[in-house]
Amino acid sequence: MSVEIKTRRRTSRDVRLMKGQAPIVMLTAYTAPMARLLDPHVDVLLVGDSLGMVVYGMETTLGVTLDMMINHGQAVMRGSARACVIVDLPFGSYQESPAQAFRACARVMAETGAAGVKLEGGAEMADTIRYLVERGVPVMGHVGLKPQSVNTLGGFRAQGRTEEEAAGVMRDARAVADAGAFSLVIEGTVEPVARAISAALPIPTIGIGASPACDGQVLVTEDILGLAGEISPKFVKRFAHLAGAVDEAVRTYAEEVRARTFPGPEQTYPQPVTGITKRTGS
After folding, report:
1. Which of 188, 200, 207, 230 could connect to 214 by a Cys-Cys bridge, CB 3.0–4.6 Å?
2. Is residue 260 part of a domain?
3. Does residue 276 carry a pLDDT above 50?
4. Number of domains in the chain
Protein backbone atom coordinates (compact mmCIF):
# COMPACT_ATOMS: atom_id res chain seq x y z
CA MET A 1 0.00 0.00 0.00
CA SER A 2 1.56 3.26 -1.06
CA VAL A 3 1.30 6.30 1.15
CA GLU A 4 1.25 9.73 -0.43
CA ILE A 5 3.52 12.16 1.41
CA LYS A 6 2.29 15.73 1.20
CA THR A 7 4.93 18.43 0.93
CA ARG A 8 4.83 20.83 3.88
CA ARG A 9 4.59 24.46 2.87
CA ARG A 10 7.22 26.72 4.40
CA THR A 11 6.09 29.28 6.93
CA SER A 12 7.32 32.70 8.06
CA ARG A 13 8.92 30.96 11.05
CA ASP A 14 10.89 28.69 8.71
CA VAL A 15 12.15 31.74 6.85
CA ARG A 16 13.17 33.52 10.04
CA LEU A 17 15.10 30.46 11.21
CA MET A 18 17.18 30.52 8.01
CA LYS A 19 19.12 33.52 9.37
CA GLY A 20 22.77 32.45 9.43
CA GLN A 21 21.90 28.96 8.20
CA ALA A 22 21.33 29.13 4.45
CA PRO A 23 20.76 31.88 1.85
CA ILE A 24 17.08 32.59 1.22
CA VAL A 25 15.97 32.32 -2.40
CA MET A 26 13.01 34.53 -3.24
CA LEU A 27 11.34 35.46 -6.54
CA THR A 28 8.14 37.21 -7.56
CA ALA A 29 5.16 35.29 -8.92
CA TYR A 30 1.82 36.63 -10.08
CA THR A 31 0.19 33.62 -11.77
CA ALA A 32 -0.41 29.94 -11.08
CA PRO A 33 1.67 28.65 -14.03
CA MET A 34 4.71 30.71 -13.05
CA ALA A 35 4.32 29.76 -9.38
CA ARG A 36 4.25 26.10 -10.40
CA LEU A 37 7.56 26.47 -12.26
CA LEU A 38 9.30 28.40 -9.48
CA ASP A 39 7.98 26.47 -6.49
CA PRO A 40 10.53 23.60 -6.48
CA HIS A 41 13.48 25.99 -6.50
CA VAL A 42 12.69 28.87 -4.13
CA ASP A 43 12.07 29.36 -0.44
CA VAL A 44 9.72 32.33 -0.81
CA LEU A 45 7.32 33.44 -3.54
CA LEU A 46 6.48 37.12 -3.34
CA VAL A 47 3.22 38.28 -4.88
CA GLY A 48 4.67 41.74 -5.37
CA ASP A 49 2.79 44.90 -6.18
CA SER A 50 5.30 45.09 -9.03
CA LEU A 51 2.58 43.18 -10.86
CA GLY A 52 1.11 46.59 -11.62
CA MET A 53 4.06 47.29 -13.91
CA VAL A 54 4.93 43.76 -15.03
CA VAL A 55 1.42 42.41 -15.66
CA TYR A 56 -0.76 45.50 -16.12
CA GLY A 57 1.69 47.86 -17.82
CA MET A 58 1.43 50.63 -15.22
CA GLU A 59 4.24 53.17 -14.90
CA THR A 60 4.44 52.71 -11.11
CA THR A 61 2.94 50.42 -8.46
CA LEU A 62 0.66 53.13 -7.08
CA GLY A 63 -2.41 52.05 -9.06
CA VAL A 64 -2.46 48.51 -7.68
CA THR A 65 -5.51 47.64 -5.57
CA LEU A 66 -6.05 45.25 -2.69
CA ASP A 67 -8.45 43.21 -4.80
CA MET A 68 -5.76 42.79 -7.46
CA MET A 69 -3.26 41.57 -4.86
CA ILE A 70 -5.77 39.10 -3.44
CA ASN A 71 -6.68 37.71 -6.86
CA HIS A 72 -3.03 37.15 -7.78
CA GLY A 73 -2.27 35.81 -4.30
CA GLN A 74 -4.96 33.17 -4.76
CA ALA A 75 -3.48 32.20 -8.12
CA VAL A 76 0.03 31.82 -6.72
CA MET A 77 -1.23 29.73 -3.81
CA ARG A 78 -3.03 27.43 -6.24
CA GLY A 79 0.12 27.01 -8.31
CA SER A 80 2.52 26.31 -5.45
CA ALA A 81 2.83 23.68 -2.74
CA ARG A 82 6.19 24.18 -1.05
CA ALA A 83 7.24 27.84 -0.97
CA CYS A 84 6.30 30.38 1.67
CA VAL A 85 3.95 32.81 -0.11
CA ILE A 86 4.01 36.48 0.92
CA VAL A 87 1.62 39.09 -0.49
CA ASP A 88 2.44 42.79 -0.81
CA LEU A 89 0.06 45.31 0.71
CA PRO A 90 -0.60 47.90 -2.00
CA PHE A 91 -0.30 51.65 -1.60
CA GLY A 92 -3.15 53.19 0.41
CA SER A 93 -4.27 49.94 2.04
CA TYR A 94 -2.27 50.24 5.29
CA GLN A 95 -0.73 53.70 5.79
CA GLU A 96 -3.77 55.40 7.31
CA SER A 97 -3.83 53.51 10.61
CA PRO A 98 -2.93 50.18 12.22
CA ALA A 99 -6.63 49.28 12.20
CA GLN A 100 -6.87 49.90 8.44
CA ALA A 101 -3.76 47.80 7.91
CA PHE A 102 -5.21 44.94 9.94
CA ARG A 103 -8.43 44.95 7.94
CA ALA A 104 -6.40 44.70 4.73
CA CYS A 105 -4.24 41.92 6.18
CA ALA A 106 -7.28 40.02 7.41
CA ARG A 107 -8.65 39.95 3.87
CA VAL A 108 -5.32 38.89 2.37
CA MET A 109 -4.72 36.12 4.90
CA ALA A 110 -8.28 34.79 4.87
CA GLU A 111 -8.90 35.00 1.13
CA THR A 112 -5.53 33.77 -0.14
CA GLY A 113 -4.17 31.50 2.60
CA ALA A 114 -0.76 33.16 2.23
CA ALA A 115 1.83 32.91 5.00
CA GLY A 116 2.15 36.65 5.56
CA VAL A 117 2.25 40.14 4.12
CA LYS A 118 4.93 42.61 3.12
CA LEU A 119 4.66 46.34 3.66
CA GLU A 120 6.97 49.25 2.98
CA GLY A 121 8.22 51.71 5.57
CA GLY A 122 10.60 52.07 8.46
CA ALA A 123 10.28 53.84 11.80
CA GLU A 124 7.01 55.48 10.76
CA MET A 125 5.43 52.02 10.26
CA ALA A 126 6.81 50.38 13.41
CA ASP A 127 3.62 50.83 15.43
CA THR A 128 1.57 49.35 12.60
CA ILE A 129 3.90 46.36 12.26
CA ARG A 130 3.75 45.76 16.00
CA TYR A 131 -0.06 46.01 15.93
CA LEU A 132 -0.27 43.44 13.13
CA VAL A 133 2.21 41.00 14.65
CA GLU A 134 0.41 41.10 18.01
CA ARG A 135 -2.77 40.09 16.16
CA GLY A 136 -1.21 37.12 14.41
CA VAL A 137 -0.12 38.61 11.07
CA PRO A 138 3.43 37.69 10.01
CA VAL A 139 5.03 40.80 8.49
CA MET A 140 7.96 41.15 6.12
CA GLY A 141 9.35 44.67 6.18
CA HIS A 142 10.80 46.72 3.33
CA VAL A 143 13.29 49.59 3.72
CA GLY A 144 15.74 51.52 1.57
CA LEU A 145 14.28 52.32 -1.82
CA LYS A 146 10.51 52.10 -1.37
CA PRO A 147 8.70 52.09 -4.75
CA GLN A 148 5.41 53.19 -3.16
CA SER A 149 7.19 56.35 -1.96
CA VAL A 150 8.87 57.07 -5.28
CA ASN A 151 7.27 60.50 -5.52
CA THR A 152 8.66 61.67 -2.17
CA LEU A 153 12.05 60.03 -2.79
CA GLY A 154 12.47 61.96 -6.01
CA GLY A 155 12.56 58.93 -8.28
CA PHE A 156 14.17 55.51 -8.30
CA ARG A 157 17.62 56.20 -6.87
CA ALA A 158 19.90 54.28 -4.54
CA GLN A 159 19.52 55.07 -0.84
CA GLY A 160 22.22 55.51 1.79
CA ARG A 161 24.73 57.52 -0.22
CA THR A 162 25.13 60.18 2.46
CA GLU A 163 25.81 59.66 6.15
CA GLU A 164 22.36 61.01 6.97
CA GLU A 165 20.65 58.68 4.52
CA ALA A 166 22.68 55.69 5.72
CA ALA A 167 21.77 56.40 9.34
CA GLY A 168 18.13 56.75 8.34
CA VAL A 169 18.01 53.38 6.57
CA MET A 170 19.72 51.71 9.52
CA ARG A 171 17.27 53.35 11.92
CA ASP A 172 14.35 52.17 9.80
CA ALA A 173 15.68 48.61 9.66
CA ARG A 174 16.15 48.42 13.42
CA ALA A 175 12.65 49.81 14.02
CA VAL A 176 11.07 47.22 11.74
CA ALA A 177 12.97 44.37 13.41
CA ASP A 178 12.17 45.64 16.92
CA ALA A 179 8.48 45.85 15.96
CA GLY A 180 8.40 42.11 15.28
CA ALA A 181 8.84 41.66 11.52
CA PHE A 182 10.08 38.16 10.67
CA SER A 183 12.31 39.37 7.82
CA LEU A 184 13.26 42.51 5.93
CA VAL A 185 13.70 43.40 2.27
CA ILE A 186 16.45 45.96 1.65
CA GLU A 187 16.04 47.54 -1.78
CA GLY A 188 18.24 49.89 -3.77
CA THR A 189 20.66 50.60 -0.93
CA VAL A 190 24.42 51.11 -1.19
CA GLU A 191 26.32 47.92 -0.44
CA PRO A 192 28.15 48.84 2.79
CA VAL A 193 24.94 50.05 4.41
CA ALA A 194 23.01 46.90 3.45
CA ARG A 195 25.92 44.78 4.69
CA ALA A 196 25.95 46.59 8.05
CA ILE A 197 22.19 46.19 8.45
CA SER A 198 22.40 42.46 7.72
CA ALA A 199 25.11 42.05 10.34
CA ALA A 200 23.23 44.08 12.94
CA LEU A 201 19.73 42.61 12.72
CA PRO A 202 18.55 39.36 14.34
CA ILE A 203 16.09 38.73 11.47
CA PRO A 204 16.95 37.72 7.88
CA THR A 205 17.55 40.46 5.33
CA ILE A 206 16.65 39.91 1.70
CA GLY A 207 18.45 42.12 -0.78
CA ILE A 208 17.39 43.55 -4.10
CA GLY A 209 20.04 45.93 -5.34
CA ALA A 210 21.69 45.77 -1.92
CA SER A 211 24.49 43.42 -0.84
CA PRO A 212 25.63 39.81 -1.33
CA ALA A 213 25.98 39.79 2.45
CA CYS A 214 22.21 39.90 2.85
CA ASP A 215 20.67 36.67 4.13
CA GLY A 216 18.83 36.20 0.85
CA GLN A 217 18.09 37.74 -2.52
CA VAL A 218 14.93 38.59 -4.46
CA LEU A 219 14.36 39.70 -8.04
CA VAL A 220 11.40 40.10 -10.36
CA THR A 221 11.12 36.80 -12.22
CA GLU A 222 10.34 38.42 -15.57
CA ASP A 223 13.56 40.44 -15.24
CA ILE A 224 15.81 37.40 -14.77
CA LEU A 225 14.07 35.59 -17.65
CA GLY A 226 14.48 38.47 -20.09
CA LEU A 227 10.73 39.00 -20.44
CA ALA A 228 10.50 42.54 -19.08
CA GLY A 229 11.92 44.55 -21.99
CA GLU A 230 15.35 45.93 -22.74
CA ILE A 231 15.52 48.44 -19.88
CA SER A 232 16.23 46.94 -16.48
CA PRO A 233 17.78 48.13 -13.19
CA LYS A 234 21.54 47.88 -12.63
CA PHE A 235 21.08 45.15 -10.03
CA VAL A 236 19.26 42.75 -12.37
CA LYS A 237 21.12 39.80 -13.88
CA ARG A 238 19.43 38.05 -16.78
CA PHE A 239 19.72 34.30 -16.44
CA ALA A 240 17.80 33.67 -19.68
CA HIS A 241 16.61 35.60 -22.74
CA LEU A 242 13.17 34.13 -23.28
CA ALA A 243 11.73 37.11 -25.13
CA GLY A 244 13.54 35.95 -28.26
CA ALA A 245 12.13 32.44 -27.92
CA VAL A 246 8.62 33.82 -27.49
CA ASP A 247 9.04 36.06 -30.54
CA GLU A 248 10.26 33.14 -32.65
CA ALA A 249 7.44 30.85 -31.53
CA VAL A 250 4.73 33.43 -32.26
CA ARG A 251 6.31 34.34 -35.62
CA THR A 252 6.29 30.67 -36.66
CA TYR A 253 2.69 30.26 -35.50
CA ALA A 254 1.58 33.32 -37.47
CA GLU A 255 3.35 32.07 -40.60
CA GLU A 256 1.70 28.63 -40.36
CA VAL A 257 -1.76 30.10 -39.82
CA ARG A 258 -1.38 32.38 -42.83
CA ALA A 259 -0.06 29.51 -44.93
CA ARG A 260 -2.92 27.27 -43.73
CA THR A 261 -0.46 24.62 -42.56
CA PHE A 262 -1.78 24.96 -39.03
CA PRO A 263 -3.91 23.32 -37.82
CA GLY A 264 -2.90 20.06 -39.45
CA PRO A 265 -4.57 16.65 -39.26
CA GLU A 266 -2.98 15.95 -35.87
CA GLN A 267 -4.61 19.06 -34.37
CA THR A 268 -8.14 18.42 -35.65
CA TYR A 269 -10.92 15.96 -34.82
CA PRO A 270 -11.96 13.87 -37.86
CA GLN A 271 -15.62 12.91 -38.15
CA PRO A 272 -16.14 9.11 -37.77
CA VAL A 273 -17.51 7.53 -40.96
CA THR A 274 -19.57 4.88 -39.14
CA GLY A 275 -23.23 5.81 -38.67
CA ILE A 276 -23.20 8.69 -41.12
CA THR A 277 -25.75 8.64 -43.93
CA LYS A 278 -24.50 10.33 -47.02
CA ARG A 279 -27.21 12.11 -48.95
CA THR A 280 -26.91 11.96 -52.74
CA GLY A 281 -29.58 14.53 -53.46
CA SER A 282 -31.74 12.00 -55.37
Report:
1. 207
2. no
3. yes
4. 1
